[in-house]
Specification:
Elements (H helix, E strand, L loop, with lengths): L1 E5 L5 H8 L8 E5 L12 E4 L8 H11 L2 E6 L2 H9 L1 H6 L3 E2 L4 H7 L2 H10 L7 E2 L2 H9 L7 E5 L9 E3 L2 H14 L14 E5 L4 E9 L5 E13 L2 E7 L5 H11 L4 E9 L2 E8 L6 H6 L4 H10 L16 E2 L9
Parallel strand pairs: 1-2, 1-4, 2-3, 4-5
Antiparallel strand pairs: 6-9, 7-8, 7-9, 10-11, 10-13, 11-12, 12-15, 13-14
Helix pairs in contact: 3-5
Length: 332
Amino acid sequence: MNILFTSVGKRYYLINYFKNNLDSKIKIISVNSSNHTSAKNYSNYFYLSPKINSNSYMKFISSIIKKHKIGLVVPLIDIDCKKLSKNIKIINKLNAILIAPPFKIVDIILDKYKLYEFLKKNNLNTPRTYASKKKFLYGYNKGEIKFPVILKPRYGTSSILTIKANGINELDLYYKYLEQKINYEYFNKKNHKEKIVIQEFINGTEYGLDLLNSIKKKYHSHLLKKKIEMRNGETDICKVSSKKIIKICKKISKLILHNFIVDIDMINKNKKFYIIDINPRIGGGYPFTHIAGFDMIKYLLKQVYLKKHPLKKPSINNKSILLKDICISVID
């Protein structure tokens, strides 16, 4: 049973984390729609894939699973999780396990307005969200919300095109700007008029959460990290937090039904945690969890290859500041 990483991009470090827990007989295969990825240097095999929205994408993925006897499929970007989870029957028929939540959940959490409704329905704190400027202005005039507010693509990812507006004039300006920008990108939905959401601005402390479930979709553990410095939507510097959020974690685990990790962005204000985003995959903040001493990948692989579920939460480094560094790779 070999392992397939899809849309591997710059995440070569994940390949190393997996390799460190694997027998050398188990091979790592990675695919990406661009050849410009350092993962080529770390994988046993690398293939250039069609674009995810291509009609040939699933045929390509199926051929790789068959050729390399893949047992585990690990998508590394949001839209790939959605595409593969929608086609889970194809993957299951090939006797492979997809590391992702069910499609109906992925479809909700990648739509920022659906996610808002889902969280509110389940009594989880989240910023008040409007699906259009018209609906926002109606709520604003009723006193439901005040400035500043956050504008973002409804189907966006990685904080791309996320803008803070401090008043009506800025709202009008930025709304028009986003309408022009959101055209043919992955987060555009054809024939969908409500492509921009307007969210309540929560002025608090930002946290990242790696929430770990078993392969059988049961809560196992979590690691919460306080964000110290951010850049382009990703955490550059953080520190492990000891804040108690196990009740929230167990509740989310039951709702999301993931079979490994989901990555959650949260803001703490007045002792309340507000959920901002849920990513249905290993997130960009996972290396901090790993370096802090919690090898969640080991837990996954023990279940898949050794059929062992017990794993005690290790001793975590919650004193040191954790920061990303730059690594330059040369690829052929």
